[in-house]
Amino acid sequence: MNAFRLAGDMTHLLSIVLLLLKIRTMRSCAGISLKTQELYVIVFASRYLDLFAKFFSVYNSIMKMIFLGSSVSIVWYMRYHKVVRQTYNKDEDTFRHHFLVLPCFILALLVHRHFTFIEILWTFSLYLEAVAILPQLVLLQRSSNIDNLTGTYVFLLGYAI
């Protein structure tokens, strides 16, 4: 196992745990960009499409399920939980995130290792992950009050990339 990959996985996992901790304990998603979380669902869904087709290791399979499941659960909390969704500030989260998806996909079609369906989706997920934090950064710039958990989450998320 690559030490850098392990460090990146653990840092990203810690950022997710902090975010879920904030949402569950404070019953709030204030300061969190739903658009960034939706982009991460797309990133992990396209990257881990091979989860059921190809087995690499137990660690790999577990981390894929954790990243995908936690991303979906964060989006669910922010969209559908009756208390948490009321704390989401739609007026500050105005980044047009859908404009990031198509350019990343076109870039993946043009710049990739092999022209296969799985490889294109995997490459697309890399490009999209590189810009997925932009809506969160714009939201933080517009927001006047950033709590410690949100700041730490963004720091760890940026550090994991």
The fraction of residues in strands falls at under 5%
Helix content: 55-70%
Mean pLDDT: 88
**What low-confidence regions span 5 or more consecutive residues with pLDDT below 50?**
none
Structural class: mainly alpha
Oligomer: single chain
From N to C, what is the helix and strand string?
HHHHHHH
Question: What is the count of structural domains?
Answer: 1
* Number of DSSP helical runs: 7
What is the rounded Rg? 16 Å
Overall geometric form: globular
Q: How widely separated are the two ends? A: 18 Å
InterPro entries: ER_ret_rcpt (IPR000133)
Keywords: Endoplasmic reticulum, ER-Golgi transport, Membrane, Protein transport, Receptor, Transmembrane, Transmembrane helix, Transport
Subcellular location: Endoplasmic reticulum membrane
Family: Belongs to the ERD2 family.
TL;DR of this structure?
The protein is mainly alpha-helical. The radius of gyration is 16 Å and the shape is globular.
SSE topology:
Blueprint: H1 3-26, H2 34-47, H3 58-80, H4 98-110, H5 117-131, H6 134-142, H7 148-160
Summary tags:
single chain; 161 residues; mainly alpha; 69% helix
